[in-house]
Amino acid sequence: MRWVKILSISDKRIVYLVIFSVVFAVTRLAGIKTDVINPDAVNWHFRSQQFIVGLKQLEFEKTYQHYHPGVTLMWITGVPIELLKQITGIQHYNNTNFIYFHFIAKFSLILFQLVLSLVLIYFLSRATDFQRAFLVMSLLSLEPFFLGNSRLYHMDILFTLVSFLGIILLYLSVHRNSFLYSVATGFVFSLSFLTRSIGVGLVLYTLGYFFIMYVSKSADFSLKKLLVILSAFVVSSFILFPALWVRPVHYISEIFSEGQRIGVRKGHSQLFFGKQTDDAGVLFYPLVLVMKMSPVMLFGIICCLISSCRKFNIYNLSFKFIGKNSFLFVITSFYFGYFAIMSVLSKKIDRYMLFMFPLLGYCAVVGLERFYSYIHKRFGISLKVYYVFFMTFFAATLFSFYPYYFTYTSPVFLNAKTANSVIGQKPFGVGIFELKDFVNENYKDGVNLGFIDTKPMKAVYANSGVFDIRVNDPGDYDLIILGINEEFPDKVLKSSQRFELSSVITINGLEYWRIYDKKTN
After folding, report:
1. How far are the Cα atoms of 49, 103, 204, 212, 291 from residue 251, in angstroms, in the given order?
2. d(Cα 154, Cα 169) in Å, to the nearest integer?
3. Taking the mean position of all CA atoms in its chain, how far away is CA 229?
4. 10 Å Cβ neighbour count for 131?
5. Are strands 498-507 and 275-277 parallel, antiparallel or unpaired?
6. What is residue 452's three-state secondary structure?
């Protein structure tokens, strides 16, 4: 009977994981071939190609392409694209075959994210329990903004998931006497760092965490574990990043110096409460979180905070609490450290708050569990009814925003226009295929186009027919296409050429692309 019981539990978990995988795949793969070409994706296509060229020709310095440094992304997508080239014989991108290379890149990244999510469910269940781990990852996978970004050829979700796995493994390696956990922790730390340089924060947090355990004389402190984690981090980074085989000091220095120049000193242009700014200040990220979280997650977090405040005890802030088996304390302190650092830095982008979603998702699930316990005792509401209510909300939301989940804004801000007046939406290549088809159907063949950001359209339209309106003369193009919140540059306004609004493409309640036709005198 005991074995039958164990088998039945195992079978239930397998069913849950299969359902999770199917929903994950369907919500991400449907329509990805022709939804978004973000400008950074065009860059990463080129960088991934150069990365593979460097490996094939043993020119290992070419594996350093950017300060991020995006090594994991280039491994994940560069290899499948190279296989496609070998199979088809196509060696170079053009505006007709880009769509296939782009699909392979996104498909490979989504597949890796799925595997990573399943791994996260397993290890998170070791830190808490299977039900909570499953619900946390399910909530994350259905969050519209999180889902929208996971459909992009970009690093944000990859970095978020890898880092979340890293902090879970750190907790497990500290509280479990396992050499393999420590090695795995260092390896995943390396993946995080090689995705984004700020991932080195996992190492710094680990040093601080072990120091506090040492000062508090915690029984969990082990210098051996710390050394194994650090050694695995260094060795893994060298193995996965061939540029370090050639000039390690130079490239490590380059990563951090460029990161400081762009991320700390340079800032990033944002439309914040209707004003253009390079540093949106400390209010930016709290507003981003409220705007980009679903009401389900926000409600769960509020429930978690209310219930936690009722149980609050100053003793929980002592060093003794750190030594105890407190997973929530470990992840909370880590993620709040990230939030504080990002709030201080001048470069602010809404996507950078995706990193906070695992913590927010975990807290939301805890809050929703406590809320269900309350209403079940008080009103006798069944768990099935509770789940159906939330799943219906997500289904309706995902259907209404399909396939451009990147544009999601919470109904807390009433509507998309109100949200856009607070934090300006970026075009980010959303609907670029739809825009291209609209132009081909409604304007003359071979019409020349003027953009502010030319990369997305150049990838799928004849390169010779796409111009930068900030650089090229207005006489070079017939149409000007402005993305949401983009305005005419001075070069156009001061020219003798006149452009009138001809068409508007609306996406999820916003005038996403405005097409201006040149008027001849």
Report:
1. 19, 31, 20, 32, 37
2. 24
3. 25
4. 13
5. unpaired
6. coil
pLDDT tens track for 117-159: 999 999 999 999 999 999 999 999 999 999 999 999 999 999 9
Residues 280, 398 contacting (CB under 8 angstroms): no
In the chain the first and final C-alpha atoms are separated, in Å, by 89
To which H or E segment does residue 168 belong?
helix 156-175
Residues near 153 by beta carbon (within 8 Å), at least 6 away in sequence: 38, 40, 41, 44, 45, 77, 102, 105, 106, 109
Which residues on adjacent β-strands are paired with residue 518? 499
Residues 313 and 232: beta-carbon distance below 8 Å: no
Q: In this structure, are residues 504 and 514 in contact, taking their beta carbons and an 8 Å threshold?
A: yes
DSSP code per residue over 287-334: HHHHHHS-HHHHHHHHHHHHHHHHT--GGGGSHHHHHS--HHHHHHHH
Q: Is 404 helix (H, G, I), strand (E, B) or coil?
A: coil
The 8-class DSSP code of residue 431 comes to T
The domain locations on the chain are: 2-398, 432-519
Q: How many CB atoms lie within 10 A of CB 51?
A: 27
Residue 43 contacts residue 102 (beta carbons within 8 Å): no
What are the Cα distances from residue 287, in Å, to 41, 282, 306, 316, 407?
26, 10, 20, 29, 15
H or E stretch covering 468: strand 466-468
With b meaning 16 or more CB within 10 Å and e meaning fewer, what string describes 35-44? bbbbbbbbeb
How far apart (Å, rounded) are the C-alpha atoms in residues 101 and 91?
A: 11
Per DSSP, what are the bridge partners of residue 378? none
- Alpha carbon distance 6, 363 (integer Å): 29
488: alpha, beta or left? (left if phi > 0; alpha if psi -120 to 50): beta
- The pair of structure tokens assigned to 152 is 């992009």
- Two tokens at 280? 């949106």
The CA distance from 478 to 130, in Å, is 58
The predicted model scores a pTM of: 0.93
Q: How far is CA 210 from CA 70, 124, 271, in A?
A: 28, 21, 41
pLDDT in tens, 268-288: 788 888 888 888 889 999 999
